[in-house]
Description:
elongated, 2 domains, three-stranded mixed β-sheet, eight-stranded mixed β-sheet, 5 helices, alpha+beta, 24% strand
Amino acid sequence: MDYLIAKIKRMSNPAHYKVLSGHTTFQFEVDDYSLVEYSPDHNLDEDGLFKISDFTEKGYCLDFLKQDLVSTSFNEIPADKYKKVSYLCAIQESAICFQKVTPSTYLNRSLLKFGENVTIENSDNKILINPFPDAVFIPSQNILVFRNLGTISSIFKGVDALYKEATHEEVNSFLNEPFIALSDGYDASRVSKPNRKRVALAIESFAGLEGEEKTQIMDYIHEYCENISYDEGEKKFSISNDEELKFLLYGIEQRFYTTILGDEKRLANSVQTLG
Length: 275
């Protein structure tokens, strides 16, 4: 039987209360073909969804998702707790759905209700249910499905660690790599937040390259990034601003390609590994 529970803010025992039973809160379908393993540098298609595989093995997985859920394990929610809900969790036949609750989710206004008689309905103590939940845990596949990591980070504490952003020290260390020459006063303090994320990815990618592979990457970047000055003798790229650094980082991630027809050079906005 489907039922709905609510997490109450700043409570740990008990943290969850049963709100209602016998009602399917969310009705939706998840297409496996639309699922992409989460990567902070991937831009979802309009109908795409991120997933995190082996979710119950992650440190940020909620403990009760690792257990057999029984509705009788949860007490009925007291009336004085309705305004203290941090998220809703719908336990349904094949999925467990989550919706974050914020002040804007509460309907605190009057509504005009149409029917045999037109009436004005007071909407106090009502929470708006979204058409699609913020996150869906599918036990049969052990995956968490979602669209926005920031939205679910308050539900799954620690999941935002997946959104890697290089520290100031890491950025500074990367900019001191022998293939980079800084100019025009550009340094780690002027690196933008998006580029800090790209630096984190580039550090990981570059660390996995052998000597000859690093040389090949440098040649690849030089071929595609005509906007970055390159000293072939010194084997150094001159980086003077955030835009040049962005293209250098795209090069390390091998985001450039040439079309088969027309030989047109392009930049891939997102990358998804196949196979």
